[in-house]
């Protein structure tokens, strides 16, 4: 039999973004371990997981939703979770801000004028929002005429996108597709 079947099931439920059914758990486990697993065995382990998380010492519980299972925070913690959601919703980025942030990430240090030349539109608002969200930082001033500010990504940028360093960003050649070019490539 599969080692630590209960923990395997618990991991599947935890990793699922929406409820996961017993049938889906069975299919995934059988495909992974190439062993027959009964629905009864899965139900037994799900019941044990549900009982474990029913204890007051856990902030989350196993909930039966839409014919499946999902880990959710217990109602007691609604206030703090609600505050987190409010806090995080303030950090959502518009398409314009994402485009500006991408330019800064790949081209830093870069001036506002250079960003606007790449995007083709005014970037005042996007840069201001990125500075407020602390995803972008001012690196200094350029040596060019007027000494414009130089922008770069902040350490929070890496946290926001779940990377350890800028080297983990996709390479531009992997992101830019042939359909983004006008005319033939041999012109």
From TrEMBL:
Name of the featured protein: SMC-Scp complex subunit ScpB
PANTHER family: SEGREGATION AND CONDENSATION PROTEIN B
Xref: InterPro entries: ScpB_csome_segregation (IPR005234), WH-like_DNA-bd_sf (IPR036388), WH_DNA-bd_sf (IPR036390)
Entry-linked NCBIfam families: SMC-Scp complex subunit ScpB (TIGR00281)
Claim: Cell division is one of the keywords in the record: yes
The keyword Cytoplasm appears for this protein: yes
Classification of source organism: Bacteria, Pseudomonadati, Bacteroidota, Sphingobacteriia, Sphingobacteriales
Keywords in alphabetical order: Cell cycle, Cell division, Chromosome partition, Cytoplasm
Highest taxon of source: Bacteria
